[in-house]
Design goal:
five-stranded mixed sheet, about 325 residues, alpha/beta, UDP-N-acetylmuramoyl-L-alanine:D-glutamate ligase, 14 strands
Length: about 325
């Protein structure tokens, strides 16, 4: 377990970091449905939800940025494509609250700003429950011109930052920011500067990413494994680590984070025990933020996994939102343990 002074030293380094990011940037829009207001639509006869609060936050790649900002990272430089629309306006306004350089974001009239609209309503016990989510995004590939511009901006950000986070959020092939051309650019950058961290979190395309550090969850890894036993998953993680010659981090919920290294060794870094109700939405992104921030601050792979576990243990306690963790909260959780 990380000594408290070692953890404090890592956290003290974060304000000096510049982290580049590339991938799918969403707007998370939360609609709070009034508990005691009821109205029926005259046209449909259905209940018309009465919204008394609208709350916006950056989502997907933005969730990672929220967490990095809360950790105290000095500057974040995202590369992504959003739409020239109202959702894009609201997203840029929310990013303005973070230590973000927005100069590498591409605004396209051909794309919708990806948006998760999440109606929330309290149940009889007063606990917020998420209703059916409404998803907005363009279900078509980026244009060749937009892809070329993303690759150009990606290379510039990679060379000017301490490390790079890649979020491959869209499962549908070629519909997200991380398409074949962008993956090829990432491979070229990684091979030209193998000492520099490129940390990739991909939901469905782990096998198509080369020469980079990979992070996935247990379910995502299982899609590549011939069997789903713990031993088979461990071997699959080791195969990815050996192929890329980079560490693979596998989040495993309440069990913690499996660290698989190219030399054939694996270490399970245990999770921190959390009691009471939890909300795991965004837990993987918060873990990514803790791992990458710690790695760039000089932590070993297993130390970084422990920081990721610390961060996630705090964010999952924040119900009805994708939470964040501050250095003070992280130190307090470490002392509790």
């Amino acid at each position: 377990m990380l000594a408290l002074d070692r953890l404090q030293s890592l956290l003290n380094t974060l304000p000096r970091l510049t982290i580049g990011l590339v991938g799918d940037l969403f707007l998370d829009r939360y609609l709070h449905v009034a508990l005691d207001e009821m109205e029926t639509s005259l046209e449909t006869g259905l209940e018309a939800y009465q919204i008394d609060r609208v709350r916006n936050a950056p989502g997907a790649l933005g969730t990672v940025m929220n967490n990095l900002a809360a950790l105290g990272v000095g500057l974040l430089v995202p590369v992504s494509v959003i739409g020239d629309d109202g959702h894009g306006y609201d997203l840029l306004r929310e990013l303005g609250r973070l230590p973000v350089d927005k100069g590498q974001l591409l605004c396209s009239r051909e794309r919708l700003t990806p948006t998760y609209t999440k109606p929330l309503r309290r149940d009889a016990q007063g606990v917020w429950q998420e209703l059916n989510r409404l998803d907005v995004r363009t279900r078509a590939p980026l244009s060749p011109e937009a892809t070329a511009e993303v690759c150009r901006r990606l290379a510039a950000v990679f060379h000017s930052s301490d490390g790079l986070i890649v979020l491959d959020q869209i499962v549908a092939d070629e519909q997200g920011v991380i398409n074949s051309e962008v993956r090829a650019t990432l491979r070229e950058l990684a091979q030209a500067a193998p000492e520099k961290l490129i940390f990739v979190d991909s939901r469905a395309h782990l096998s198509r990413l080369e020469s980079v550090t990979l992070k996935c969850n247990r379910s995502e890894l299982a899609a590549l494994a011939p069997q789903h036993s713990p031993a088979a998953l461990r071997e699959c993680a080791l195969t990815l680590a050996e192929r890329n010659q980079r560490t693979v981090f596998v989040t495993q919920g309440e069990e913690g984070v499996l660290v698989a290294q190219p030399d054939g060794t694996t270490t399970l870094t245990p999770a921190f025990v959390v009691e009471g109700p939890i909300d795991i939405v965004g837990a993987g992104d918060s873990c990514t933020s803790g791992i990458v921030a710690a790695l760039l601050a000089g932590a070993s792979d297993c130390e970084a996994a422990e920081v990721g576990n610390l961060v996630a243990s705090i964010t999952i306690e924040q119900l009805g939102e994708t939470g964040t963790a501050t250095p003070a909260q992280i130190l307090a959780r470490r002392q509790e343990s």
